[in-house]
Design goal:
By secondary structure, the protein is mainly α. The chain has 5 helices and no strands. It has one domain. The chain starts with 5 loop residues before the first helix and ends with a helix.
């Protein structure tokens, strides 16, 4: 792939922001249906009745994250689909990036208590999504200024 011009890079970053937004909606829907998908790797706690109050907390956490991700992803996708929506899209994409950065901070704050293997997956995926979102938001704002 040749990213020879600034316009090509901006388009690639816009596509990346769209991909992150779509993935956010898909992961959010999965988390609503199966709240253990985000909660078990993050906290190490399952969502079954056998897990007691911790299982209840994991279900609530998983579903709350799912709802958050669906809202952020749909907002970004709608704004990205509008011809003159770069400013609104930048706000939605930056909001998702901020949430992901806060997920990284929350994970790091509890690092020693989290599962040894999966904490790396959680912090890596959240950091990657945050960086991709931040780059996409900057590209959208740049395109608006130049357009």
């Amino acid at each position: 792939m040749n990213l020879g011009t600034k316009d090509d890079l901006g388009m690639q970053l816009r596509r990346g922001a769209t991909a992150v937004a779509a993935a956010r909606v898909a992961i959010g829907a999965l988390a609503l249906a199966r709240p253990d998908v985000p909660s078990r790797p993050w906290t190490g706690v399952g969502t079954s009745a056998d897990d007691g109050k911790a299982g209840l907390a994991a279900r609530v956490l998983g579903r709350a994250l799912g709802g958050r991700d669906i809202a952020l992803g749909l907002g970004a996708l709608v704004a990205l689909s509008q011809e003159d929506g770069d400013n609104a899209a930048a706000v939605w994409v930056a909001s998702g990036a901020l949430c992901d950065a806060l997920d990284v901070a929350s994970t790091l704050a509890s690092w020693r208590e989290l599962p040894r293997v999966t904490r790396w997956f959680v912090v890596g995926s959240a950091a990657g999504a945050s960086l991709a979102g931040a780059a996409g938001a900057v590209a959208l704002l740049s395109a608006r200024r130049e357009g």
